[in-house]
Amino acid sequence: MVVEDRYSAVFKLDRVRPALVADGLAECQVRWPSVPVIFAETRQLAEEWTYRFLAAPPSPAEVRVWAQREGHVVSDRGRVPGRLVEAFLRARSGDT
User: Fold this and answer.
1) Which stretches are transmembrane (predicted)?
2) Which of 11, 28, 54, 75 is a Cys-bridge partner for 18, taking CB atoms 3.0 to 4.6 Å apart?
3) How far from 57 is each of 22, 36, 60, 62, CA to CA, in Å?
4) Residues 4, 44: contact at Cβ < 8 Å?
5) Residue 18 CB contacts under 8 Å (≥ 6 apart), including other chains
6) What domains are defined for the chain?
7) Which phi-psi region, left, alpha or beta, contains residue 71 (left: φ > 0; alpha: ψ -120 to 50)?
8) CA dihedral 25, 26, 31, 37 (to 10 degrees)
9) CA–CA separation, 71 vs 92, rounded Å?
10) Cα–Cα distances in Å, from 83 out to 21, 44, 67, 72?
11) 68, 58 contact by CB (below 8 A)
């Protein structure tokens, strides 16, 4: 979740209680810890962060879970073979 403002702006809101918004953000982070909450001061910074986040490579742990679920033999430690990363990316994009 990308918020186009500073976190401090939450406490300057006048149409809603700032504490309600801050509590809601904290609850979201606790309930969905794998969903990052990013505060970007401007739309340009928000777009830049989003672009880089979406272009980032998958984590080895994410590829391992997928590979094991798909029946591939993969070590629980060390580097994930490039062929599995490529297969993961193809599967994620819907290509075969």
Assistant:
1) none
2) 11
3) 31, 16, 9, 10
4) no
5) 10, 11, 12
6) 2-55 (no CATH), 60-93 (4.10.320.10)
7) left
8) 50
9) 16
10) 44, 35, 11, 11
11) no
Task: Report the relative pairing of strands 2-3 and 38-39 from DSSP bridges.
Answer: parallel
The pair of three-digit structure tokens given for residue 64, joined into one six-digit string = 């391992």
Residue 23 makes CB contacts below 8 A (sequence gap 6+) with none
Instruction: Say if pTM beats, i.e. exceeds, 0.85.
Output: no
Task: Tell me the one-letter amino acid at 15.
Answer: R
One-letter amino acid at 55 equals A
Give the type of residue at 59: S
